[in-house]
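My convention is simple: the sequence line spells out the residues, with the fold written below as integer tokens. I include a record here:
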Amino acid sequence: MPKENKKRGRREQKKLKRSRDEDEDEVNVRKRQKSQEPQQELDLIAVDNVEGLEGAPAEIPYDGTDNWEGGEEGASQRPFYGNLEDEEQEYFRHSDELLELNDFPSDEERSLFLANVYREAEGKELKLACSQSCSRLMERLILLSNPDQKKKLFGKFSGNFLHLVQHRFASHCCETLFIQSAPIVTQDLTEEVETEPQPTDSKDEIYVSMENLFLYTLNELEGHMPFLLTDRFASHTLRVLLVVLSGKPLEKGSTRSLLQSKKKEKIEINHFDADSAIFSLHQRSVPESFQFAIDKIISDTVATMDTSFIKILATHPTGNPSLQLLLELELTNSATKKNLPSQKTIISALLPDDITSPESESATFVNGIIYDPIGSRLLETIVAFAPGKLFKQIYRTTFKDRIAALSRNEIASYVVLRVLDRLSKEDLQEAVDSIIPQIPHLVSRSRTTVIKKLFERCQVRNVETEALTTAITEGYGSDPSTLVLKMAEVDADVLIRATSSSTGTSEAPIKPPPKASAAQLHGSLLAQTMLSVPGSSSTLIQNSLLTLPASTLVAMALYTTTSRLIQTALTPTETNLIFRRKFINAIVPPQAPSYSEEQDVILRLALSPSGAYVLDSLLAGTKQLFLFAERIAGRLATYENLLRDSYSGRIVWKNWMMDLYKRRRGDWIKKIKGQDTPSKNK
């Protein structure tokens, strides 16, 4: 066995001992807090492949402490706001628990409690925001605060935002403060709000509008944007601030994916909906100063970054989402559109020359990121928001002849979806003809998102879908009894066993199968889309559903993923009246079975969270099929006690207006025939 190669003698042993002692001293130096000794030089970890580039930021590794301030500023000065005492931490933790439960007798009691917490937190706001155990309390305080209290918090954070947005815990508090303060800016613009200062404890306190508070925050961050774009924590906060300034919806799916990661903890308060939720799903009105601020941020950021560094950001895990948002704001802002030819912009840095030339720098860049898991997301933004002329050049150069091959790729197919959204009728027809030969391959690999998008765009552009439907039949097989099951990737026998219930008066079925896979979800969405497209595609799915036995249809109605397919099939259209009559008879037999045989289908649906939605769809689709509604209501009335003991059952009882059915049958009939039904409360 070979021996270790090492030097002999006492001198070598002394040298080794001296080296180990020096290493231990270096470790001890690193472990010292800043309060004990000034921070020594740190080894900066630069963004990959950007050493020497102009404007290229460096990133500080996280040191594991609550008061970590990573980044360029953190390297030179890392402010320490102090620690909370044990008694203070215990008080704030208890307050956090009470706010989370939100079990106050009245809103006034809660307001008084909030005022007391704010009084105890006076002068400790920064400590709370930077505390691992109490930062959640600060977020809940922001959620429950009134406009004046939020403005005071802005004042407390003022002058420290540059450090707070880089902090592991305080950055989340800043995000919550920005999001919850956005509606106040909108309300100041759309409503007649008194701008006089409210009574305060300090006579010298000056009234400041929420608009100015946001602008003051921007002034603090000005000059540090290139670094913040790639900071581990500040990049998320910066994106939130940009979205607030732009007026974009805060809770829309496409926006939320840019603002936060899937692992982000959601701070909630029981039985409380923040007022900002009303504004979060819609475009918000913002002052003109915000638009000017965005223009300045984009121009200053681009001016301080080298073109090579901007391209490197395209594939940087942290910098890419920030670059996406900046590029979207640049391309959708009318002010920046006018100046595109005359000034340096993000799009001109990414695509500096004529992309129609195959050997151009722009074409090389696009071809380089189209298959990249991170860079392709930026290409999606370019395709979605680029001016019409530039989009046509990109499409004809990169996608037109390769769209069939790109649709087969797991990464590039998402860019293809964005391309299909912007194609004209003629180009879409050519794309359909190119992709049709690839459909069997896409079906075999359960990649149905491109197929679904083709049906959607064909319906919008009035393109014939007969060839698409034929290709779907060839891909899944011509047997109608298995078409829908193959499309949703479910096994009928397994599904029936998983959703079956015991005989007798069992109140709820056995737990459904595990959470649906992505393939099951996408297959179900494809079937739903085909049902919504008139013609051969909807007829194909309808015929497949009618060939399935009642037990399989009920099992599909009880399973979350396939339940949405059943709901779509029951949705009334101009051409599916005959199909719905047959389909309802297939799901809900005219005669209820006896308990000795099996549990009634109506009861099983009503006691299931997924099945309850199917009953609601049955109610919405019985305006022209009133006899079915009356038959189902009669059977629901026989299970009143069971329904009232179940949450889903109570919702069904309310939506079907069963109290009105039992007391005033005539009024119930008028409401059902007129479809004057209440909205779903789920």
